[in-house]
Design goal:
- Chain B: The chain crosses the membrane at residues 6-22, 29-49.
- The complex is a heterodimer of chains A (414) and B (206).
- Chain A has 414 residues and is mainly alpha-helical.
- Chain A is 61% helix and 6% strand.
- In chain A, β3, α14 and β4 form a beta-alpha-beta unit.
- With 206 residues, chain B is an alpha+beta fold.
- Classes of the chains: A mainly alpha (414), B alpha+beta (206).
Chain lengths: 414, 206
């Protein structure tokens, strides 16, 4: 089973998709979370209840800035989501968020804060290893520095590429260490006997019911059956440690991650809505690329794209699609190598799919449609006002041959 | 000194590493520093911000446990349990800690200041619950951390305006086989009335 990926053992994947999916999911989730916290309320607390070790963070100025900083973080994260200058948008968003969370922690360091710290670490890993990301605005910008020959080579390459995902490697390791801590904490503080009976879990559930004032019917079987409670208590520690062990030994992390998600679901059912963010964090390590392979068109359904290999802009636009195409569903053919019926056209881009030939904007739209994940974009691009705007934009970026034949003798410089 | 030093060093160091991320060993140095701190924090079980641990439910429970409750006292002397939604970002366990400090540690001035904070926030929250408005942005919120019980407008109807808070100490005793709570006794500790500026300790009930 490989529903989840052990990036610690091997951070190379055949598709760059996972990194982009995680960047988008993580960024959007944190935006939602950050904008939902009541930042303006924290400064109202009297200041004498603060833990002295972090008292230096309990400053009026820090609290006064929180409601504004949330918008700065959100704006930086929007740029992070599309992958624009990830090193700094991600890096600064992460650092600013960590500072805000630290200030909040002077009042209360609860699960939401800790989970968002974990999200911040992951965002920071993305910033540190920003160049691994191939499906981002940055990657598209970087193609501008590459020569036409290099771009053509990328497009016509056999595509047995390996994409490194160091952000996910170090991110998974950090998450695994944090979970070891969850199990270690009980060993550190408790007498050895707590591991020999279910009493700890029984009491925790009972105590929680008293203090929260809510009945948890699903908690009762564990409270009433000591053996079940013991299995739950020891099982929790086992799954929490197993992720680190599997990650470091190079084993599959699928069962450990499913185990920890199962543990979180049990907590929600027996104790209440704690640590729900961690379920999202764990799901980031899913094999999104394998799921996408099932959805994507395969090599049998291959389309041919003939592009103008003397046009730098055309090649640049196509490079991200070449990276995304892990299933060889599109073959990119330079016009100089194309069969006559496809080569002898004015448009810089021609797509032939299942005998149907389209050109220009329409070919581009259909190319996007080949990547079924992007089907909504294809649909939007076909709606009439967007089609008009899109055609204009397309003409500007990818001029067809007639145009540059008359205006610009050196199309390569575009 | 350690805490502010690590804090400042982490932020300055990370910005520096981001600026020189492409230099040889820059990122290795950052990763070594980060993971050393994370491991130390995880082993010791004490956060060294901005590096945190997640030691959860790590304190072994006793056969008898104590927690503290805040209750609202209205104009006619009726008591109502306190809804933690009034004072974000806290939940029950933190409210219990603060209530315990109000009972045992704070000076009367501090009790009055904290008491007023709780009273004002409770009144504000009560108003929001009674008005029943939930804006679109409220609906788009992620679920609250811990879905504990919440005040309802119908429940609040039976109360006059809140005037004071009262702290209760509660002692939970589990049955021998831990399958039930044998008793959960309450003992009033202190009443804080910011409206009159009075603090009344209930020592006689000890």
């Amino acid at each position: 089973m490989s529903a989840f990926v052990n990036y610690v053992a091997d951070d190379g994947r055949a598709s760059p998709l996972n990194l982009a999916v995680v960047r988008v999911l993580l960024g959007m989730y944190v935006i939602w979370r950050v904008l939902s916290l009541e930042w303006a309320a924290y400064g109202e607390w009297p200041d004498f209840h603060v833990d002295e070790t972090i008292g230096f963070l309990h400053q009026d100025l820090f609290f006064a800035l929180l409601p504004y900083q949330q918008w700065v973080v959100a704006a930086l994260l929007v740029l992070f989501v599309v992958g624009y200058r990830t090193r700094w948008t991600g890096g600064l968003a992460s650092l600013l968020l960590m500072h805000m969370l630290s200030v909040k922690a002077t009042i209360y360091l609860a699960g939401t804060v800790e989970s968002l710290f974990v999200c911040s670490y992951l965002i920071l890993m993305f910033a540190l290893f920003a160049e691994d990301d191939r499906l981002s605005v940055d990657a598209l910008r970087r193609t501008g520095d590459r020569s036409l020959e290099e771009l053509n080579a990328v497009l016509t390459d056999e595509r047995n590429r390996v994409y490194r995902m160091r952000a996910l490697k170090w991110g998974l390791l950090a998450v695994a260490i944090i979970y070891v801590g969850s199990a270690w904490g009980k060993a550190l503080n408790g007498p050895l006997e707590i591991w020999l009976s279910g009493a700890e879990l029984q009491r925790d559930i009972l105590f929680n019911r008293e203090i929260a004032g809510v009945e948890r019917p699903m908690g009762m079987p564990l409270v009433e059956n000591e053996l079940l409670a013991w299995v739950g208590f020891v099982g929790t520690a086992v799954v929490q440690v197993s992720l680190f062990v599997a990650a470091v030994l190079g084993l599959s992390v699928t069962l450990p991650i499913l185990g920890i998600i199962g543990f979180h679901v049990s907590v929600i059912l027996t104790l209440g809505l704690y640590f729900i963010d961690m379920i999202l964090v764990l799901s980031l390590f899913a094999a999104w690329d394998l799921a996408y392979r099932r959805l994507a068109a395969d090599a049998d359904d291959e389309a041919t794209v003939v592009y103008d290999d003397r046009c730098h802009a055309c090649a640049r636009v196509l490079v991200p699609f070449a990276h995304l195409d892990g299933t060889d569903s599109v073959r990119f053919v330079p016009r100089s190598d194309a069969p006559a019926e496809l080569a002898d056209r004015d448009a810089a881009l021609t797509l032939s799919d299942d005998g149907e030939i389209s050109e220009g904007y329409e070919a581009f739209r259909r190319l996007i449609g080949k990547f079924r994940l992007l089907a909504p974009i294809t649909w939007l691009m076909g709606v009439s006002p967007l089609r008009t705007v899109g055609t204009r934009a397309y003409d500007r970026v990818v001029p067809d041959r007639r145009r540059y034949r008359s205006d610009a003798p050196e199309p390569d410089s575009s | 000194m350690l805490f502010p030093a690590v804090y400042v060093l982490f932020f300055l160091g990370t910005v520096g590493i981001l600026a020189f991320a492409r230099r040889r060993y820059a990122r290795e140095v950052w990763l070594a520093g980060f993971f050393t701190t994370l491991l130390a924090v995880t082993l010791v079980g004490m956060p060294l911000l901005p590096v945190v641990d997640m030691h959860k439910f790590a304190q072994p429970s006793e056969e008898e446990e104590t927690y503290y409750e805040i209750r609202m006292v209205d104009a006619s002397g009726e008591e109502l349990w306190f809804d933690d939604r009034s004072t974000p970002p806290t939940t029950g366990t933190r409210t219990s800690t603060v209530a315990g400090q109000m009972a045992d540690e704070y000076t009367d001035d501090q009790r009055l200041e904290m008491g007023e904070f709780y009273l004002e926030n409770a009144k504000e929250h009560r108003q929001a619950v009674e008005s029943g408005d939930r804006s679109v942005t409220d609906r788009l919120q992620p679920p609250r951390y811990v879905d504990d019980r919440a005040w309802t407008a119908a429940e609040l109807e039976g109360y006059e305006s809140f005037e004071a808070i009262r702290i209760y100490e509660r002692t939970v005793i589990y049955s021998d086989d831990n399958t039930a709570v044998e008793s959960n006794e309450e003992r009033p500790r202190v009443t804080i009335d910011p409206t009159d500026g009075t603090v009344t300790e209930h020592e006689e009930s000890r």
